[in-house]
Amino acid sequence: MPYVSNEEAKAAVQERAGEPAAQGRLSRILDSDMFHSFLRSKVTVVAAIGTFILFLLAFLAPWVAPHNPFDLASISILDARVPPVWMEYADPRFILGTDDQGRDLLSGIFYGMRISLIVGFCSVIAAAVLGISLGLIAGYTGGRTDAIIMRIADVQLTFPAILIALLIDGVAAGVFGSIDREVFAFYILIVSLALSFWVQYARTVRGSTMVEKNKEYVQAARVIGIPAIIIMIRHILPNVMGPVMVIATINLALAIVTEATLSFLGVGMPPTQPSLGTLIAIGNDFLYSGEWWIAIFPGLALALLVLNVNLLGDWLRDALNPKLR
Amino acid sequence: MLVGPFRKTENEGKMKTKSLLLAATLLAAGTATAAQAETLKFAFQGTLNALDPYSLNETFTLSSLGNTYEGLTRRGADLAIEPALAERWEIVEPNRWRFYLRKGVKFHNGNDFNAEDVAFSVDRVRSEGSDLTTRVGADVKVEIVDDHTVDFVLTGPNPILHYEWDTFYMMDKEWTTENSAVKVTSASDTTPNYAALNANGTGPFKILSHEAGVKTVYEKFDGWWDEAKHNLDTVEFTPIGSDATRVAALLSGELDMVYPIPVQDIKRINDNAGTRALTGPELRTIFLGMDQMRDELLYSDVKGKNPFKDAKVRQAFYQAIDIEAIKQKVMRDLSTPSAIMISPFLFSKGSEFERYPYDPEGAKKLLADAGYADGFSVGMDCPNDRYVNDEAICQAVAAMLARVGVKVDLNAQPKAKYFAKVLASGGYDTSFYLLGWTPGSLDSWNVLSNLMNCRDEAGKGSPFNLGGFCDAKIDSLTKEVLVEIDPDKRDNLIAEAYQISHDNAYYIPLHQQGLAWGVSDNVELVQRADNQFKFRFVTKK
Amino acid sequence: MIGFATRRLLQAMVVMLVVALLAFTMFRFVGDPINQMVGIETSIEEREALRERLGLNDPIPVQFARFVTQAAQFDFGTSYQFRQPVSELFAKRIPATLELSFTSALFALVVGIPMGIYAGLNRESAISKLFLSVSLVGISLPTFFIGILLIFLFSVTLQWLPSFGRGEVVQVGSWWTTGFLTASGLKALILPSITLGLYQMTLIMRLIRAEMLEVIRTDYIKFARARGLPDRLVHFRHALKNTLVPVITITGLQLGAIIAFATITETVFQWPGMGLMFLQAVQNVDIPIMSAYLLLTAFLFVAINFIVDILYFLIDPRLRVGRP
Q1: Cα-only R_g, chain B
Q2: Structure pTM?
Q3: How close does chain C come to B44, measured CA to CA in Å?
Q4: Which fold has domain A39-69+95-324?
Q5: Which value does ipTM take for this structure?
């Protein structure tokens, strides 16, 4: 799956057309007048509530989950593959049934969602910081620096997230000697995802910066000798935060889905610390054997989470559109 | 499913007449029969790469090429050694084996098979670049007696000389020389070798086309020396890596046979109309090993000493594992818990051994006696794409050990990285690991010499004794086993070595994993316990 | 113009070199190729001899120089697993990947554009909302899961479509194989194309819809309508034409992405293309295939970027001052 979002593609077009992405088509695209649509806001309200509940469940997992799936001493293989309570041979202890190791699936989903979200947030923040900095520098400095940074971005695009994860995984093992995968898998994922997402921020921010820096107030600031770094942070950055927020939201959804794909390839979170994606990848093996709940429930949870975040992203895009204020 | 041995033809002349008669009948039957050309379509999880029979010592490669090439011997449906390109053999002197070659055998290109080809194949199989150099020792001399008689002269007695010869395939000297393929296709070659892309054997199937990793098409060889029991005209092989897709292709009727199938899908395949699962015991033993060589474990919170050097700790680990639960829940009853490091099918005294009972309380006590009343932590290495449910077994083991206070940090990786870490090339970088072993010769000496002898840090000795334990008695027994001709005495020596390993819990054998193949109801075939799929046993309705 | 093109061309070459260097260094750490090339019983001495023959013991700069020199001549070495020249293997696999990519892009356009137009023109209708929500669900599930669910439904349960492979292929010319000319080949394309194209379809649909919403409110369209032109003509002649420019650009950019990211779909459907070969190569530490794949996708991206840049340069004069 191509990990290029709507925004990124649009931004690329803007950037090439020399148009300021921040105030160009980007913020006008998609659903621009939907904000006023009553029905749409109803959807948004529902999405916001849904997202809030899911986040709450995820981050309070240790307190709300009926079991702790990470406590090996408490799980027993003899409880493996118990169906959900409404089916035959169920066990009332496990509402949504258990997975192949005898872990409670409901608890697994709460904890898994937590891991998915932490991975998502961390990678989005890392990508945004990296992308914004490089975008600001490229756009503001221009010339050779700009060319170098944007060419690095080109190189970056040739490395799919999957490949980056595989490579970083291998390099980490090579550089740090033997590593504890349970700990490192998490950081490897964040670095891989951050490395594959930063380009979108950089391109968008660079486009906006190129426009902003020619405006009179920036010129004036420059003339009175305010250092470039201050100008970038004080004056330019606030003007590009809108599209960045939109990209970040969409990216959060994308990061969660990508992490799931990486789990399928065996470079995501290990099964001892499953994310939603790991749970789906495990459950995949049991789809034909009738133990559908192992894959379907985490799949539903993932779809629900990503859908809600995406809907919020849509709404954010509208809310940040100056035309609609 | 083990079936009786494949009946071999007694008389070649008779066979020829018979096949002529058969051909006549077919002709008489006319176009109706000709139109019903039987095609078998099957899939395996891995790929068939180079066609050179000496370039990779791996079960599936050898199994596939065994339909095209043949050895002096072959193994029947029950794995018994039977004559193939050699009609019979005898030990004329203690160190001289004489093989009488079958007459009238043709290669696919029409050339005759003779003693020259045997001598050539022996030279080639132990030349540089071959991955099967162990098939014939470097000290073995080959003497051609006449066109259809070959002597093998050894430097010492070796009762198992021919045990692996069912996968030591005979090549045609003329064909190989003409196509400048005398050098074995080695991984380091820069130009493609003719023998890697083409095949010319004596077997029941010719290779019609071969695109590595995509598709291989076989066609029946009409000039085969043996009477064909199969009724296939063509065979199509496709590698399908994804378990779910492979099973789907069988369930949807696109393929006639797929293997392996995940144990959890056996029921589904049996319930589905038109397909069934064939299951049986496999010869591979899955076991756990522990680092008993280093003075301090690489991955543990115990510093300054190595808990695995204490037999009590090893036995505690052994008894903490509920093998029946693994069998029932992880393997879905498709495994045979094992007390020794070889399948009982391969060792006459195998059934005399018994596992230590599952006893978590006893395990806790043993740990306390050894000074680890509060347990300790240890890192465990595990492959996640090599053996049946390998990662799930490791996870279950980790949970079971957690119950006796041992914290296991599981590091499950794809086989490429797992083997690079734990084998000699990675410096035996492991404290506790899961591994599987099938002796290629189907004989215990292979197990003793590869897994149970002492080794140094570079791997001299038993290279696959990853934990590096060292027991001088097992070493000396291994040497005796190699030269002992008397089968009973030999088995006693082997049993003694296994007993020492068991008493000291040098290894924790888990089980022999099961074979699971998915087969369409219109196909009859033989599932051999060595997981080799031979087209000559297939009939299609 | 010439100066701009030369500069970009030089930059592109530097990019390729960097990718080559990255690919080369990183693959040293992916795993030990020797273990995948020999059987488990092969002795340590033989393993070491093989390592030596492969040149894996040479100093890293020497290995890199050899790699770049050969790659520049389109010689990517011999695959460790297949023991065939990598360039030949890729030549055989490229048609499969390109046909899949082309079909999925076609699917995305043919389905995405009408849906987008409809949703843009009738933005309050229930069907538009359905399109929007369904497309969101489509991108909320990982590709592999969608693929497996499709196989489960259409191959196993309904038995309508094949679950793997390309079906029957026909040889066209000296090396191209096509599945477009046989019934089984066409049937085999359906599920993988949908799986791969779903994301692009969503992207295109939402893009068109947004563009339509915008264009329809422009004065230009309002005038056209005021002139009394029929709705149909206004919508398709004037409005749609204006929305297509960004769509074409993005499709162009996404084509490279589709080809490079077809790996997952090819794995799920056992589609014999480059992506499948690449993932298998990763599993088997087949370094020559991995490097070649990476260089090939890098080349593709760089080439598309280069062409798009030049086109924009020609179309948009503002660029001539704005960018180096």
Answers
A1: 25
A2: 0.82
A3: 12
A4: MetI-like fold (1.10.3720)
A5: 0.80
